Amino acid sequence: QEKSCHLSAALLGEDCEISHDQLYELLKYAALGKCHNAAQPSWCRIYHQSHLAGVVVVVLHEMSQVHFYRFYLQFKHLRKVFHHRFTLIPSADFLASLYGEGTDLKPQNRAQGLTSTGSECVTKSSDLQCDPIIRRYGEKRRGLTSYTLTLEEQKKNDYPIKGSPGCKDYISTECDQQRTDSSPLFGLDCEMCLTAKGNEVTRVSLVDARGQCLLNELVKPERTVMNYRTRFSGVTKKMLLPVKTRLSDIQTKLKKMLPHDAVLVGHSLNADLQALEMIHPSVIDTSLLFARTEGRRFKLKFLAKAVLGKEIQCEQKLGHDPTEDARAALELAQFFIEQGPAKVAELNLEMLLTAEKLAEVSQNKAALQPQGCGVQKQPDEPPHLSKPCFLDCLHVTGQKTLILGRQGLESSGLCQSNPSTSNKQILQRALEDVPLSTFSIIQFSLGPEYIASHLHAVLYEKVRSKLTDMLTIYAGPFEESFCLKSVKKEFGRCGPIQSLTVVTETFQPYVCIQYEVLEAAQLAVESLNGAEVAGSCIKVQRPVTAAMLDCDVLIKELELDVENEGVIYVAGLKKSLTETDLQEEFSQLKDLEILFLPKDLQSGKHRNCCFLKFQKSQSAVDALEAINGWIVKGSELRSRNALASGHLWRWIWQMNHSNGKQGKHIFYEKMEQLSDSEQNLRKKVKKLDHHIKKLYRSLHKNTLCVVLFPGLN
């Protein structure tokens, strides 16, 4: 799904390490784009951002690169589908790079999340039962007829009723046909002025179920206007001067426009129908639909922002736009009907309203505070500048966001959610809600029993040990007086050697060689096993241990990894050759895209090997045939398909050059403890991979999907 999101950064070697700020850049631009002043990422480029259907971030809680390579074979889908892989530089607070440092995640930003702020989590069924929406409608989704007001409800809420004393001269819409769940919805809103008669209509808007405006007209009041209420209505004396349309004209138009089974939707629609002096039998009132306790009602402006992510009735505009209000009421009703009461209750609108009011109070206090009256900072205290919350940016621009997870989000102001929520439940919710959201964060976890720091250390040691074995080969037997220098030279043609030692415990001498890159060790096994070296016909093999029994399978899967597609490894280069020399030597190779010349990360010196990335896989195959045996500056080149992508090569180097602080006896004490549960862990990882596969396949075309292994820190 990369058609609209092409990462144009180089994807080999040092370029495979990025910071959380760089990740933040990518996600911000993908979600907001130029229209909201977000800049292209500095390290890659997204083409056709406006075509992106959405952004999905999958967070694998407290899992790291160690887990990915320890369970590489289990992550079958993950490693085959995701084409770009990067190492994240460790950060003190991973989630802060998304939510903004020092910023509590406001509840409205995770409207449909499984996690929550405060002491209560909105997903608990016991909490939902207390919600006035659930008490009124139940939890199940129903058709629109379940939400139309009954005759008693209309009487109670001052709707014009046929035969009522105050509605003697009111006009009926004559929409008397039986309503069904497929009856058409129409949004209606009016603006009124104050006359001697009371409230009289000055403007009427009607929209259909698709939000298209059918009617938007100014109306001349019958009596002299006492107050135009311009601040709310947007209507002025000047606007009404040329108007000829009267209330009777509007009544006639509405009667003609509305089909016999029409359902009118509005916010406090009783006031609009009273001003229109019309009777309509079937209405949905969004001020009552989104029920509150003690007869209170949410304002339309708040509901539009909290539920739809839309800003209406903006202060910059003169008055309300009745078409905008009619459309907002209609969409709110459609959202309620489509999502059902349970989903609406999970929005926790009361908490959102409280948070909004607190934010307003806080802003007002800040505005009223005189300059120089703030708390004095100590001279040595650095000023704290908090980043704008990423999800705040999305919310302000009307983007629908979704956060699903069960733990580990508390550092961003989210509470620790219900631990009983399973990955399967999170997946089910994600399959339903991700397609409805612009930006989603979905968090899966292995469970608390598998993420303890000491178990992570054991996993690290197992991965380090296995990689070391894969980098190591044994060669021999040699004659007693063999030339070690010629052996080192021959094996050095396969790639950079980390260490070479002579094994003397055997009847005849062998050598143990540890390489710096996986490709070098594999090339030595493939090209020198059975060859004559230093006057002896030798056998070349890797160490035989229980952990190495699946080495051949792992090598094959690494070779087929999408990151290694079109990438070949070339060894036997003279260290005096520069990158420019190599570019010139390989310029005749078709479709060559990138040349990466590894270097010692301490000394900065180039190694005697390089990686070549081609635009097409077939070009890489052709290059392999051409390069093997190629003589460059007196050196014969050897090549094979790449095994370790850039970030893995860098990681292997760091592993080889790091001195662990913990003694090996500590690891061995824990090894037994982990071995019993590792089989279960493999099953869990396999299931996790399957969840990601299902989620990925459900995404709309042109969705940017990022999977994160944030690690313990």
Indicate the CATH class of the domain at 142-339.
Alpha Beta
Write down the Rg.
34 Å
Structural class based on helices, strands and sheet pairing: alpha/beta
Q: Unreliable stretches, pLDDT < 50, 5 or more residues? A: 100-126, 370-388, 407-418, 660-671
Mean pLDDT: 82
How widely separated are the two ends? 30 Å
Helix content: 25-40%
For the secondary structure, the number of strands is 26
CATH fold group of the domain at 142-339: Nucleotidyltransferase, domain 5
Structural commentary:
The chain is an alpha/beta fold and 713 residues long. Among the domains are: 198 residues, Ribonuclease H-like superfamily/Ribonuclease H (Nucleotidyltransferase, domain 5, 2-Layer Sandwich); 97 residues, RRM (RNA recognition motif) domain (Alpha-Beta Plaits); 78 residues, RRM (RNA recognition motif) domain (Alpha-Beta Plaits, 2-Layer Sandwich), CATH 3.30.70.330. It has 26 helices and 26 strands. Strands 5, 6, 7, 8, 9 and 11 form a 6-stranded mixed beta sheet that branches. Strand 17 and strand 18 form a beta hairpin. Helix 19 crosses helix 26. About 10% of the residues have low confidence.
